[in-house]
Amino acid sequence: MSRFLNRQYEKLEPYTPGEQPKTDGLIKLNTNENPYEPSPRARRVFCEEQVSKLMLYPDPEAAELVNAVADYYGLEKEQVIAGNGSDEILAFCFMAFKSPSDKVYFPEPSYGFYKVYSDVFLLKSNPIPLKEDLRIDPEKYKNLDGTIILANPNAPTGIALNLEDIEDILKTNESNLVIIDEAYVDFGAKSCVPFLRKYDNLLIVQTFSKSRSLAGARVGFAMGNKELIADLNRIKFSFNPYNLNRLSVQAAAAAIRDDEYFQKTRKKIIETRTWISAELEALGFTVLPSSANFIFVKSGSLSGKDYFTGLRERNILVRHFEKEPVSDFVRITIGKEEDMRTLLSVTKDLLTERNRR
Ligand SMILES: *Cc1c(COP(=O)(O)O)cnc(C)c1O
Questions:
Q1: From atom 2 of ligand 1, which residue's Cα is the shortest distance away?
Q2: What is the C-alpha separation between 191 and 178, in angstroms, rounded?
Q3: Confidence (pLDDT) at 178
Q4: Top enzyme class of this protein (predicted)?
Q5: 34 pocket-lining for ligand 1 (C-beta < 6 Å)
């Protein structure tokens, strides 16, 4: 720490990203990336002709992408803003919106950035523990006195709330902004987009990183009423107007227009999830009911740490969180079927080894 660091950040604990290994040959199931390449239409964007235009700034409004998202969801273009990953969009939200109490409510555990952004932007984080079954208790989000942020489906559990529960939260928090982070919604949950017509306290955040196979391109977006989106644009244009590069804007617009590829790849992921969940359950695992592109699982005999370490030693990377109440679990991204077959056979070996001891 230098002597120049803003004192307010002395105790700031940054977000810990999942490992991005520098070597090949690992089966990477730790950061919920899509195992399938981006849509061929998105890939065609990265051509000589487009690269040769990189001396020019991108469109600060990212109109091509904003229009494509608005078309996809049947919204007006003033209801959409794009960002450098949904992480940046979430940061804009924390900068732009603040309740009189300064409080932010979110589930614990959930996506780690909610706490980090509360700290960076000097808001008071109020984590609300999950129920014993690791579900969000919607009752605890009624009539609060601050901003609410919920991942739906939640991470790292993969469990989704139903829309009736979300609607109750919106109704009972008329004077609070409710942000729904739909990073994983395409893998089996229902989007809140239809609620945008009824509730002006709703903001929805989505990403191209998971269901659209573009994590490396860094594209996310928010949808809300025009005033909320104008507020976010006020922040964006005061911070980084050219937040999205030319190629990513075009790739993401092409990806969201390729519905056929999207449907095909997400269906495969859902099928693989169903299959691997049943296989692991047959081996005595507890598998939480996932609506995401990952599963959160607990072995009947191996600790979370031992299962994580055993897989790592055999070149399979998954995610383990040390803290309670989830330290017995590991989070496994749904990869290609062949990778999940390898995971399954390695898991069987680990269980056999364990029983011999
Ligand atoms: C992955 C993820 C994001 C961030 O995605 P970006 O890559 O920044 O678009 C946001 N929220 C949740 C819950 C996520 O899992």
A1: 183
A2: 14
A3: 98
A4: transferase
A5: no
Using CA atoms, how far apart are residues 14 and 1, in angstroms rounded to an integer?
Answer: 14
Same domain, 266 and 222: no
Q: In Å, what is the CA distance from 197 to each residue of 75, 79, 186, 193, 194? A: 10, 11, 20, 8, 6
Q: Assign 20 a pLDDT band (cuts: 50, 70, 90).
A: confident
Long-range contacts of 340-349 (CB under 8 A, 24+ apart): 340/272, 340/275, 340/276, 342/27, 342/316, 343/27, 343/29, 343/276, 343/311, 343/316, 344/276, 344/279, 344/280, 346/310, 346/311, 346/314, 346/316, 347/280, 347/283, 347/307, 347/311, 348/283, 349/314
State the pLDDT at residue 356. Answer: 83
Reported pTM = 0.97
- Backbone phi, then psi, for 220, in 5-degree steps? -140, 175
Residue 23's pLDDT is 80
Structure tokens at 181: 């982070």
As a whole number of angstroms, the distance between CA 244 and CA 242 comes to 6
Compute the distance between CA of residue 346 and CA of residue 353 in angstroms, rounded to an integer: 11
Considering the domain architecture, whether residues 54 and 86 belong to the same structural domain is answered as yes
Tell me, what amino acid is at 271?
Answer: E
Q: Is the CB of 222 under 6 A from ligand 1?
A: no
Domain boundary among 257, 276, 301: 257
Distance CA 121, CA 103 (A): 11
Q: Is 220 in the pocket of ligand 1 (CB under 6 A)?
A: yes
> The domain that contains 93 carries what CATH number?
3.40.640.10
Same-domain pairing of 195 and 240? yes
Which of 20, 87, 159 most suits a substitution to test ligand 1, by most atoms within 8 Å of the C-beta?
A: 87
Percent of the residues in the chain that have a pLDDT greater than 90, as a whole number: 95
